Amino acid sequence: MNDDFLFSEDEPEIEIKDEAEPFQILIVDDDEEIHTITRMALSDFKLDGHRLNFNSAYSGSEAKKILRERSDIAMTLLDVVMETDHAGLEVARWIRQDLKNKLIRIVLRTGQPGQAPEEDVIARYDIDDYKEKTELTYRKLVTLMYSCLRAYRDLNAIERNKRGLEKVINASAEVFSAKSMHGLCQGILEQLVALITHSDDAMYCRTDSTEAEGLTATLEGNHHFEIIGGTGDYELAIGKPVEQDIDWDLIQQLQRSPNHVEFRIHDNNYYGLYKTKGERQYLLFIKGVRELSELDQNLLGLFVNNSSIAIDNLYSRDTERAQQRELLYSVGEAIDKRSVEQISHHVKRSAEMAGQLAIYTGASFDDAEQLKLAASVYDIGKVSVQMELAQRADALSIHDYEDIMQKVIKGHDYLNQTDTEIAHLAAKIAQDIHERWDGSGFPSQKKGRDIDLNARILAITSQYDAIRTDRTYREAQTMESAADYILQHSGKFFDPEIVGLMLDNLDAIEKIRQRYPDQR
């Protein structure tokens, strides 16, 4: 090798203060001198602030071992003739076909060009260059490093962007399939944090359209934003107003923008403000974001903009469902009212608790919502019974009682005439609500799991709430007394597995019923 190779100087490169991660270079050659010379020649080489870090292998098998263990090798200078005449060619083939590494740049070097002609090697192997050792001067080696490492850098950028796009697509699918506002917001945050930062601290906030105008006119507008999703430091703050960490002057700048999507990165924090058509505002705040490329920023803006639309759509759907549910609860309470001498929310409480208990049994969110609706009208057969009782002054005989119970069960027939899913669910509940787990119920003496699951769930929550509710003939009993009654009749009246789930989550169930107190 000539002196040019050892002592020529490369053009100076501008120093970058923050030392970047080095490019990993693998030298594969059975000649120790080649390793030494290559390291010396490239000791000062830099590309975009990245130095070189050298890894040495002295045979094809050693090279494979290193490549199996390290996925960050950017380039390999690979000798052709080592333990065999074609050991380097075998390693090149193995890298592309067996290891399936398409990013690493492969440069074959040979001191015996006759062993593997260049044209044949280039045609048969997926390599980036093929050099004879005698022609690879220092200048040519540096040029080779620039071209190969730039190609590796650009291919890596393409691969990262491809993975980022895949993440956005997958994240969108996961987020938009969420069935609840909490699940949707948490999904958005988790996916965004995974996409742009190593920090887990993020919050997603919302303000109503009625508050948006006032919010833009005051520096004290933080109470208008409510945290609807949070991770890390903000996970326990869901449902609370935003009170800290936020630069409100920056928020106001974003609010004054005519664009419906605006974001800034300030003090290593991400601020994204998204205004929907209904003028509701969403604020995304993420702590400690890394530097974002223009593509990252565009993908992030697109993803969160679409997410805010999804949240608005889910909010509208939930509002519509809540209105529908309230209407059916009113119907159910009107049916129940003549048998309870006060304005009672027994129907609503039993249905809401049944929906939550269904979730504990493994039901989907949609199935639980359907159960709530069906639970509000299953007792429609009671209407004709109440009318008959109102017209009678005499005491009921056993025969009269059985006849009246048959009319209660007739609610099944009324509901089955309506061709909707909720009516059919309610019909099944009406048919089985008076059955008992041990087979001693009414009207068909069904036993165990033959009883409709929704009827088994509602039988427990309805009985529990009835015990906890005031009646003219007794006062409401304590949570402990009601739970004891349910437990005593587990395996007799009630499904023991569902009883166990309810008692394990009794505090949560009790909080639900306390949201709907009776009116005297």
TrEMBL record:
GO terms for biological process: phosphorelay signal transduction system. One of its GO terms (molecular function) is phosphoric diester hydrolase activity. CDD domains: HDc. Residues 320-518 form the HD-GYP domain. Keywords: Phosphoprotein. Residues 24-148 form the Response regulatory domain. InterPro entries: CheY-like_superfamily, Cyclic_di-GMP/3'3'-cGAMP_PDE, DUF3369, HD/PDEase_dom, HD_GYP_dom, Sig_transdc_resp-reg_receiver. The modification 4-aspartylphosphate is found at residue 79. Gene3D superfamilies: 3.40.50.2300, Hypothetical protein af1432. This is Response regulator.
